[in-house]
């Protein structure tokens, strides 16, 4: 089970690394916020794979992560609208 967790974590980090590398190649004005979302998602994956065992903690943590992502997306939308 631990090997499966490590493989899943490695795949998530690789996908995040490739996405951030592609963002750095482009001149996107919202790059910092998009990188922040990727970092939040990678942190959430690490937490869910290795730390949490209780359903209640997981629900609180996931709802907090979703709230942060929604706020980030609203900030990106607002900046693009300006």
From TrEMBL:
UniProt keyword annotations, A-Z: Membrane, Transmembrane, Transmembrane helix
Classification lineage: Bacteria, Bacillati, Bacillota, Erysipelotrichia, Erysipelotrichales
Membrane-spanning residues: 6-21, 33-52, 58-78
Protein name: Amino acid permease
């Amino acid at each position: 089970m631990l090997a499966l967790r490590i493989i899943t974590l490695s795949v998530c980090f690789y996908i995040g690394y490739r996405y951030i590398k592609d963002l750095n190649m482009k001149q996107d004005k919202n790059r910092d916020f998009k990188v922040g979302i990727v970092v939040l998602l990678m942190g959430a994956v690490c937490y869910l794979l290795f730390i949490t065992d209780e359903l209640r903690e997981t629900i609180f943590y996931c709802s907090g992560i979703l709230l942060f992502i929604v706020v980030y997306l609203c900030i990106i939308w607002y900046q693009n609208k300006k």
